[in-house]
Amino acid sequence: MNAAPMNTSHHSPSPIRVGVLGFGGLGQAAAKVLAGKREMILVAVADQKGYAYSAEGLNTDGCIATYQSQGSVGYLEPVGTLSNQSIQDLIASTQGVEGYFLALPNLPNDFIPTVAKEFIKAGWRGVLVDAIKRTSAVEQLLAMKEELQAAGITYMTGCGATPGLLTAAAALAAQSYAEIHKVEITFGVGIANWEAYRATVREDIGHMPGYTVEAARAMTDAEVEALLDKTNGVLTLENMEHADDVMLEVAGICDRDRVTVGGVVDTRNPKKPLSTNVKITGRTFEGKISTHTFTLGDETSMAANVCGPAFGYLKAGQQLHQRDIYGIFTAAEIMPQFVR
After folding, report:
1. How many Cβ atoms sit within 10 Å of the Cβ of residue 149?
2. What is the largest CA-CA distance in the chain?
3. Per the residue annotation, which of 39, 98, 203, 321 is the catalytic one?
4. Contacts of 24 (CB under 8 A, 6+ apart)
5. How far apart are CA 43 and CA 99, in angstroms?
6. How confident is the model over 133-151, as pLDDT tens digits?
7. In the chain, N or C terminus with fewer CB closer than 10 Å?
8. What share of the chain is helix, strand, coil (3-state, %, to 5)?
9. Residue 133: active-site member
């Protein structure tokens, strides 16, 4: 065997051993992102029907092929296990996973907080990262701060694109101002076909006028198709319940009512309908009103802008965890660390 060893240099510590919970569009993208990293190694994956674990590292292509052909990584030979409570079983049966990215649907609204409680109950210690969207879900997690601290868990919440990358950009841009008047986040998402991101699209529908999270979650695929047919595949979202507001408020940057989030999702076209950006308007100490704009490149996909930051925050969380700093932190409070 003449493959180059992973880490021969005495400078580089062994890679962080990472698990991904949820293996839909986002979870699969997360696995692909990790495949190109040397500072992190994917050792665990769970979906609704099973999980796969390998201390040496999982084969990304094998995981994705098995999931797509058989509906669960639990069928992956010889490292898969079928289970109806895959998350609990994975946590219980695997040692040495240092951090998990919760690439899980945010439906129902308390789903991710419930999963966090499973980790506490299992006595697991390490770093958890989510790319959660809703303000009320993040508030549930913030309320668990002391439980997480006592459990030895460093939890990084709201670490996707928005909330996440764009919230962090707003926190940085705010530094030019004496007072923040408004933070406006506008996103454009283009996906070739909505089935690849079913949970994400349903969640977006839950934000539309006349819909609730519960109603969107209960919709059949045919009902989603019918709605998309009516709108030409385009969802327009305004004044969404997005946790950027509570995160910027907790970070002391501005009151939540000064933060708005909206966007356009085209479910039939990979090209973005508009450029994702955040505008931060404020007053400088000299009394000038101005706006900073941070715009994401159109060629970066939703997956790139969610998974990259999630693992950057996982690395930052790992550094906190090694210093015995536990509890909950948001993307607006901590700088993400670049994962090589």
Report:
1. 15
2. 67
3. 203
4. 47, 103, 105, 196, 197, 198, 199
5. 10
6. 999 999 999 999 999 999 9
7. N
8. 40, 25, 40
9. yes
Rounded distance between C-alpha atoms, residue 309 and residue 145, angstroms: 22
Please tell me what DSSP assigns to residue 240: -
- Residue 167's contacts (CB-CB under 8 Å, 6 or more residues apart) are 158, 185, 244, 247, 248, 278, 330, 331, 332
Q: What is the pTM of this model?
A: 0.90
Q: Tell me which residue of 41, 49, 45 sits closest to 79, measured CA to CA.
A: 45
Write the pLDDT tens digit of every residue in 233-245.
Answer: 999 998 888 999 9
Token pair for 103: 């690439």
Q: Three-state DSSP class for 292?
A: strand
| Gap between the Cα atoms of 266 and 302, Å rounded | 12
Q: Read off the pLDDT of residues 38-91 as tens digits, 9 standing for 90 and up.
A: 999 999 999 999 999 999 999 999 999 999 999 999 999 999 999 999 999 999
> Cα–Cα distance between 145 and 149 in angstroms, integer?
6
Active site residue 203: yes
Amino acid occupying residue 258: R
Residue among 130, 297, 103, 268 nearest 200 (CA)? 103
* The amino acid at 52: A
Residue 207 a catalytic site member: yes
What's the rounded Cα separation, in Å, for the pair 265 and 252?
30
Among residues 39, 98, 207, 272, the one annotated as catalytic is: 207
Q: What angle do CA 35, 38, 40 make, to 5 degrees?
A: 75
Report yes or no: 122 and 305 within 8 Å, Cβ to Cβ: no
**Can you read off the two tokens belonging to residue 79?**
């490292």
* Active-site pick, 39, 98, 133, 315: 133
Spatial contact of 123 and 318, defined as CB atoms under 8 Å apart: no
Name, in order, each residue with C-beta under 8 angstroms of 71's C-beta and a sequence gap of 6 or more: 49
Q: Which structure tokens are listed for 95? A: 């040692």
Contact criterion met (CB below 8 Å) for 138 and 261: no
